[in-house]
Amino acid sequence: NTAKAVMEYVTEHIAEDISLTRLSEVTGHNNCYLSLVFKAQIGVNLSEYIGRKKMERIRMLMQNTGLSIGDIAEQSCFVSITYFNRFVRKLTCMSPRDYRLSLKSDS
Question: In this structure, are residues 67 and 75 in contact, taking their beta carbons and an 8 Å threshold?
Fold first, then answer.
């Protein structure tokens, strides 16, 4: 199952740069086909799935480590702190700092 293989790869390599090109190389399918098959089999856009998995990792690092926001961005494979901030804000409607504080208050 192509989608299952992609999901396993994403889970195992979430701390790395995961691009559609890389996933195409791993699965042997072209980008368009891979995106269409994933959406058809899973019901979620591939980039959205990867974003959710990245956010799970960020949440885990924020809750379970004392790493700085910059270190969390780096360990989540964001080359730019600006892009990391934008990514977290888009998914949580909060800055990374505020999101981390909200996680601590939920505990």
Answer: yes
How far does Cα 88 stand from its chain's mean position? 10
Rounded-to-integer distance, Cα 107 and Cα 105, Å: 5
CA atoms within a 13 Å half-sphere pointing along the CA-CB vector of 75 = 16
Encode the chain (107 residues) as per-residue pLDDT tens digits. Answer: 889 999 999 999 999 889 889 999 989 999 999 999 999 999 999 999 999 999 999 999 999 989 999 999 999 999 899 999 999 999 999 999 999 999 988 76
Q: What's the rounded Cα separation, in Å, for the pair 95 and 103?
A: 12
